[in-house]
From TrEMBL:
InterPro entries: Aminotrans_IV, Aminotrans_IV_CS, Aminotransferase-like, BCAT-like_C, BCAT-like_N, Class-IV_PLP-Dep_Aminotrnsfr. GO terms for molecular function: transaminase activity. Its cofactor is pyridoxal 5'-phosphate. This is Aminotransferase class IV. It comes from Natronomicrosphaera hydrolytica. Keywords: Aminotransferase, Pyridoxal phosphate, Transferase. PANTHER family: AMINO-ACID AMINOTRANSFERASE (PTHR42743), D-ALANINE AMINOTRANSFERASE (PTHR42743:SF10). The keyword ATP-binding does not apply. The keyword Acetylation does not apply. Belongs to the class-IV pyridoxal-phosphate-dependent aminotransferase family.
Length: 277
């Protein structure tokens, strides 16, 4: 399998990073994850735009190669013969002797990798996950997709220990998002999700699902729900590039209503899968 690293396509085993890369030393970098289906990328431009937004957010001048990431990704998908794949983009501030203060003109490290996935099937049922609730221990700029994922990975490990697949994060009683997803609640036929502010990553899947919901004449409130409202919801689901629309049937061991996929979740799931075909 080939990867792309700093201008070269290299066999996976021959790609290497400096041990002084600031991505490793300080989590000083940003990333994106996008999917290819049957050789075609989904929501490519949105991922390029968000990568630039994240780079600007952490004061890295976007290297010009950022605009070539779509072409580089297409080439990797083709040369790796992986028409159905997850593509990972990572840009770090680059290598520099360890010092909190970066050099004035570092050279960013740009990495692209691919991982094969299952081809799409027509009319797949919505996946069902169980979730725990977990305090949101992250920094105050979660709108940037940085490599600083320790609070997320620790929360997801706790979820796994509790027999669950996702951790729903909350600041005080306000639900923010999932460890690697955005969270939606359905109440009385209306949708609620956290506003796209600094406290959450503005998911590309989230924004698409909001569009599909509005196209179905559902009212969408971009207002945070409380933990009580989450637990008493009619339906809860999470969204993400790799998660698509996934139902949350249980939270902290208690079922959401009957502990099944609800009708609003099912229709939004179907709408999303349709777009991917
Ligand atoms: N995660 N919130 C967080 C904290 C995320 O990490 C992600 C995505 C999302 C959903 O964003 P999008 O719909 O644009 O994928 C929300 C990716 C998939 C990951 O880290 O692997």
């Amino acid at each position: 399998t080939l990867v792309y690293l700093n201008g070269e396509f290299l066999p996976y085993d021959q790609a290497s990073l400096s041990i002084d890369d600031r991505g490793t030393l300080f989590s000083d970098g940003v990333y994106e994850v996008l999917e290819y289906f049957a050789g075609r990328p989904f929501a490519m431009q949105q991922h390029v735009d968000r990568l630039k937004y994240s780079l600007a957010g952490i004061c890295i001048d976007p290297p010009s190669v950022v605009d070539e990431l779509p072409a580089i990704s297409d080439e990797l998908i083709r040369r790796n013969d992986m028409p159905d794949a997850r593509v990972y983009w990572q840009v770090t501030r680059g290598p520099a002797p360890r010092n909190h203060l970066p050099p004035s003109d570092p050279t960013p490290t740009v990495l692209v990798t691919t991982t094969p996935t299952q081809p799409l099937s027509s009319n797949p049922p919505a996946r069902q996950w169980k979730a725990i609730t977990h305090e949101d221990l992250r920094w105050k700029r979660c709108c940037y997709k940085t490599l600083m994922l320790l609070p997320n990975t620790l929360a997801k490990q706790q979820a796994k220990r509790d027999g669950c697949q996702e951790a729903i994060l909350h600041q005080g009683v306000a639900v923010t998002e999932g460890g690697s997803t955005n969270v939606f609640v359905v109440r009385d036929g209306e949708l609620w999700t956290h506003p796209a502010n600094e406290a959450i990553l503005r998911g590309i899947t989230r924004d698409l699902v909001i569009d599909y919901a509005r196209a179905m004449d559902l009212t969408v409130h971009e207002t945070a729900v409380t933990l009580d409202e989450l637990r008493q919801a009619d339906e809860v689901f999470v969204t993400g590039t790799t998660t698509h629309v996934t139902a949350i049937t249980h939270i902290d061991g208690h079922p959401i209503q009957l502990g099944e996929v609800g009708p609003v979740t099912a229709s939004l799931h179907d709408a999303y899968e349709q777009q991917l075909m």
